[in-house]
Amino acid sequence: MVSPLVALTPKVQSAIATALGDDYREADPVLRPSQFADVQVNAALALAKKVGMPPRELAARIVDALELDGVCDSVEVSGPGFINLTFSDAWIAELLQDVEADERSGVALQATQNIPIDYSAPNVAKEMHVGHLRTTVVGDSLARTLEHLGHHVIRQNHIGDWGTPFGMLIEHLLDVGRDSEEAELLVTDPNAFYQAARVKFDRAEKAEPAGSGGDFNVRARTRVVLLQAGDPDTLALWRELVDLSKIYFNKIYSTLGITLTDDDLAGESTYNEVLADLCAELEAKGIATVSDGALCVFLDGYTGREGKPVPLIIRKSDGGYNYGTTDLATIKHRVEDLKADRVLYVIGAPQALHLNMVWDTARKAGWLPDDVVPVHVQIGNVLGEDRKILKTRSGKPLRLMALLDEAVEKARTVIDGTRPDLDDTVRATIARQIGIGAVKYADLSVAHDSEYVFDLDRMVALTGNTGPYLQYVVARVRSIFRQIGLDPIAQHAPLLLGEPHERALAMHLLGFGDVVAEVGDTYEPHRLAGYLFELAQAFSAFYENCPVLKAERDEVRESRLTLCALVFRVMTTGLDLLGLEAPEQM
What we know:
Layout: H1 4-20, E1 30-32, E2 39-42, H2 44-51, H3 55-65, E3 72-78, E4 82-87, H4 89-101, E5 114-118, H5 131-148, E6 152-156, H6 165-176, H7 181-188, H8 190-205, H9 216-229, H10 232-256, H11 275-284, E7 288-291, E8 294-303, E9 309-315, H12 323-336, E10 342-348, H13 352-365, E11 373-379, E12 382-383, H14 400-418, H15 424-444, E13 452-453, H16 456-459, H17 467-483, H18 500-509, H19 512-522, H20 526-545, H21 554-578
Parallel strand pairs: 5-6, 5-10, 10-11, 12-13
Antiparallel strand pairs: 1-2, 2-4, 3-4, 7-8, 8-9
Helix pairs in contact: 1-3, 2-3, 4-18, 6-8, 6-9, 6-10, 7-8, 7-10, 8-9, 12-13, 14-15, 17-21, 18-20, 18-21, 19-20, 20-21
């Protein structure tokens, strides 16, 4: 199950060796699509200097040695030494028939690797905002894709579930009562609960009159000490906070269709017991030194203003630990315990310096060997119409659930207008699939490290490069097969490619396996999104120009139905790898 370019490359390499001798047997010709033919070979230009021969003459010798009977209808030398090849319809059909017979639709399994992926990472007792959208959506798509390629993916949701704020949160929970309506805010509106605790703490810090804060700040600090010391009662209260937040997280993940579960939680608290030993080891190895009371790592090449060294602080002057400490414990755990071959961090772009310092420290300590590759999948910002970071009108981070609710409402308006004939419950289901799919596709269809403007009206449109446009293609294929009472998965017939639009669709279908593999190698889901959009366009052109159910001959009808069925398989698989649902009808 290979694309035409992959299948053709060995034949071109063999022709080069035949024309020029064994010295060039390993020559790697550049094959790319051409406006004049299916593919253009750039071999002569690269080799001409080495053999001292004019490029066109060299290209002619390679053409003479090419054995492409049954593969190409025409082979021509063009321009300064290009070789233009036009594939035969029969060869394309033969390749596609192999893909059609493959239950994986041409996606080859790779040698299995252990790949922890760090993504989403919200904070306990805080609302997930739009800034969490991209790391969650991109990370989940990469997890799905790498699993589909045959890898053992270990999801790591590195939530913020430890630290000084928990003293204040626990005391506030005790003040309001664990069964109170305010405690329920941890599930429905975590920010409100957090802000109430913060206001009480700040008032107490300012020593305002009794009744406006009291000794809350003192109790909160005492509770932090108890928490870090492992006091059983305090830990039980901390777990209540985490459990309530898990309900909230899971509501978001369920709405978004994210594959993270409670089993994937690997928060900061996970590493609490190893941090002291970790710091001691770095200090004993001479990697970490005390500077102004804090334990720091100073690495070559990391300097700030005026050339001053930038430290990675791993223990603060008050004895507390920070992100640097837990992130070092994280990479150590993922290498030593999870046996990682590569580790993905789907985290905001501004964290690049911090991550590189953590990884370089881990390498220096011997915790990160050269054969384990850490990768920062950098996440860009989501912007509003003013091209600034998307926020509410009051300037606060936009709540993620509010944004998702708005997307579903917008999609409901669209589906109510286009399909008033459908049952209300059906329209509600489709609206959710379209609205959530629109948000996720808008995110995944652009490079993960770039910014994009959040525009709901454009996102939910049924035309253009949108999630609903791709979903509509699947619904259209389902409609075709519904008319004949057949499941598209059951359609298998010999493929015949007699029309240009059939051929164009077939050529595009052959590229699916290559694109999925490329996403696994580059960690760029937008490549798959772009492929699916182009496939949707190719199918639409085919559908408009090549009658399916009303084809003139039975064998042509069956062939076109098989093309439609393969489009269905590739589109539903591709959408699933992106994390989008495919509605039954639209």
